[in-house]
Design goal:
Layout lengths: L6 E5 L3 H9 L9 E5 L14 E5 L7 H9 L4 E5 L11 E3 L4 E5 L8 H65 L6 H51 L1
Parallel strand pairs: 1-2, 1-3, 3-4, 4-6
Antiparallel strand pairs: 5-6
Helix pairs in contact: 3-4
Length: 235
């Protein structure tokens, strides 16, 4: 949702309905793609790949099945109907559960206002969906970074114990290589153990170096932040 072009599913049996919506959709940095589905196929909503559904219920005597299908799809939806409007009618948005909104197209004196209102409402719904998707993605990245940080702290905390164990392995491997009468293949294996212990020791020494670098960087960042705050107060 944050990178892909959003999709608006238009559910109507009237071709003019889709044309009016697409033509009057407000400009945005990310214009949606429009997909038209025959009004009688509303049962196919569940599982369909779209970000927002706009359904035409103006000519339906009963829209309970359509409303239920939109609600069951668990995606943002706008249901446009044409119930009789009172003298002082204004755009009527009624929450019908979940993310389903109703828009009354029977606006007194302004029969086509629903097109503009639906476009503006749809644009804001898509913007909010993109913002929520970006927030979720940021949360996932933050959780992954925290997990990595926890693992890194554990490894740094354990490096002394690991180095002690490696020192013991290294010492015993060197003693084996000096053992008189030891077969050549055993000496080679002991030498391999010694070399691998030295490599592990170098790796954990690098961890210590990285820890010091990060500590220095954090101190510098704190220092700069404190200087910026002081400069701000002085201004």
């Amino acid at each position: 949702m944050t990178t892909d072009r959003p999709t608006v599913l238009i559910l109507s049996s009237d071709p003019a309905f889709a044309r009016e919506l697409a033509a009057n959709w407000p400009s945005d940095a990310t214009q949606p793609g429009f997909t038209v589905l025959e009004g009688s196929l509303f049962r196919d909503l569940i599982g369909s790949n779209y970000d927002l559904a706009i359904a035409d219920a103006r000519s339906r005597h009963s829209d309970s099945e359509l409303t239920q299908a939109l609600a069951s799809a668990a995606k943002p939806a706008i249901l446009i109907h044409s119930a009789p409007a009172p003298e002082s009618a204004r755009p009527d948005f009624t929450h019908t559960g979940g993310a389903l909104l109703e828009l009354n197209a029977a606006l007194h004196g302004q029969p086509q206002s629903w097109v503009v209102v639906a476009g503006l409402l749809g644009r804001e719904i898509l913007r909010r969906a993109r913002a929520e998707a970006s927030a979720r993605e940021a949360e996932h990245r933050c959780a992954a970074a925290q997990a990595d940080a926890t693992l890194g702290r554990y490894m740094v905390e354990m490096r002394h114990n690991i180095n002690n164990a490696l020192t013991s392995v290294l010492g015993n491997a060197e003693l084996l290589t000096l053992e008189p009468g030891l077969p050549a293949d055993a000496i080679a294996e002991a030498d391999t153990i010694r070399n691998m212990a030295l490599r592990l020791h170098e790796i954990f020494q690098r961890f210590s170096s990285i820890e010091k670098e990060l500590t220095v960087a954090a101190r510098e960042a704190d220092k700069k932040a404190a200087q910026a705050r002081t400069a701000g107060f002085g201004a």
